[in-house]
Fold this protein.
Amino acid sequence: MMLLTSLDNPPLRRSQAKHRPAGAGRHAMRAATLLLLAGALATPPALAPFAFAPLAGAQESGRRNPTVIRDAEIENLLRDYMRPIWKAAGLTQQNLRVVIISDPSFNAFVMDGKRIFVNTGALASSETPNEIIGVLAHETGHIAGGHLARMRQEMENAQTMAIIGTLLAAGGVAAGAAGGANMGGAAAALAGPQEIARRSVLSYARAQEQAADRSAISYLAATKQSPVGMLKTFERMQNDQIFISQRVDPYVLSHPMARERVAALEDLVAKSPYRDIKDSPELQARHEMMRAKLVGFSMPPDAVARRYPPSNTSLPARYARAISAYRYGAVPDAIRQIDALIAVQPNNPYFHELKGQALLEAGRPREAIAPLRRAEQLSGGAPLIRTLLGQALVAANDKSSVDDAVRELTFGVQREPESAAAWRFLAQAYGQKGDLPNADLASAQSALLSGDVQLARELAARARQTFAYGSPGWLKADDIVNVKPPKKKPGRPTP
Ligand SMILES: [Zn+2]
């Protein structure tokens, strides 16, 4: 399943909203500060400064709201890529995860100590697992090095500096210059305080980038993997930077950041005893399937056909065409293509999942159930697949399977508590069962996650009346009734 969700409405956490209002407020303010400065640094929207992409690339991709992609197959592959790296970095206890952003530009970044974000563009353009592992190892280096916390401190210092500067310059020269982002090196002395602050943060960031590079190289060495993919990615990045140089702040351009980093990396790569090690054929094959899936899901049929023409009969090519057929073509044709894939790899859970998804979305939920059950078994109970199965069971609206639906979806929301859609399907399942308090409660959760606090509180209040006082359901409903509507966040970049 390839599921798109918007990052724009970060889910409210009940515990935060109810039990730690002061702390949550402080956190929100810090986040807003970070956003403002991150904006000044031309990093991607709503994100922290440790991006892998060239600054200009980030500028290019603009201020759109990032959309998260959920997909069991790709997430599983990225976990397999990162497990050894995270172990080498001493981060096995941190419960890290890679979050996939739907964006064709090349980027990877971190914004907290728990998640590494990577664009679909980076995944699709990496020719080998090694290339993307190198990129994500670099991001891991930022987390392991605690760079985010220190960068936040640095930004706060910089902001203080900027504020003091603005106050000092109140009737003076700097006021007009403060907004000038296009000042070149020689004009630095005349730059406004915000510009000076910005550059101080930038120089700090450069040191952290090189530290993250060195960490990445050490993780790759510890796991006996080649650093060549990482170098290759940097070289490509450097070329991108030259290519789009026209639209970049000259100060950013005059930084030979990528060049320095590439030179330093070349040195380290030459010394690596693992530089000629290739990815395992098994991992390379899964990588090709991931790329095909991304192409099939994100590109129009003619682009898919150009990338994977009919003459290409490889499994990835057939996968991309089958996905494209399901998204744009006739259902019977898509099912025929998917069945042909299943004939080649009967135990590939994601082929069965795709078949189930195609049937479900074609309005044939009863037929979707069997392939989804198979996908669930073969995937070892992947939460996203169990949720999809639950969705099919609800859509089938069959009295005999309603308990099944509740079970699958309950598991789904336990493992993926931030999925508004899963809560909505669970509400439907409870509704079919005639369990109205639990249906209201699940609907309230869904409304809360979708940002409709008012509706969430109304539904939760109705559920609370029916549950026994103090029961688990009553407590959950009570929590939601007491959620405070979120305050408008200042400084968020608008789309
Ligand atoms: Zn970095």
About this structure: Residues 50, 52, 138, 142, 209, 212 surround zinc ion (CB under 6 Å). The first helix runs from residue 14 to 19. Residues 150 and 201 are 11 Å apart (CA to CA).
